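Entry — protein

Goal — fold tokens:
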Amino acid sequence: MTRIGILGTGRVATNLADKLSAAGHHITFGSRSRSRSRSRSRSPHGTAARTPWLGPAPQIAFTDHRTAARTTDIVINATPGDSSLDRLTGLRTELAGKILIDVSNATRDSADGLPGDLCHPGSSLAEKLQAALPDTHVVKTLNTMLFTVMTAPEILATPPTAHLSGNDEDAKKTVAGLLGDLGWQPEQIEDLGDISTARATEAMILIVPHILRRHGFKPFAVSLAR
């Protein structure tokens, strides 16, 4: 059993928590309010929504961001990407020596609330987090799909791809193992290289609003076809 902290309590966070808890991991949610009821979160495709949490499972606890980061082994950033850097920079001590899995995309919304522009053009949120948290192993993944695919890649007719970016090889292997717990097969996981490669997958968010406007919120992923 791994102690996993999830920063954020919205639909991305709760979706991941359900599957990881079912796989035997202990989950600690970290939020600003420590609320178990409703919270606001931004999904990887940039839209925000309120999501009900129906009640804690035996292996799910709730606390604040700092305590969640300090008391767990691996931390997942599922906070809104446009504010993630500010939120996590203050947790440098708590995150030191740990793996930080970043699933967020940092975008500025267009008029309809969908992603419009990147917050970090020429870079990426993951790179900014790694620079701000030099003692933490940042790994970028799961940011190129609708949140429902994160924990159920089998729902797509075409096998999706989960991209990995990170400087530490052991950290990426650990994250790949967690992806397996979420239902991803080894051949669906693509290691792109160091953390600088995250700017490529984060830039893919710019295609998402066009897909959503045409097809609605149907499950999809940006995948590598061979």
Notes: The longest helix spans residues 169-181. The radius of gyration is 16 Å.
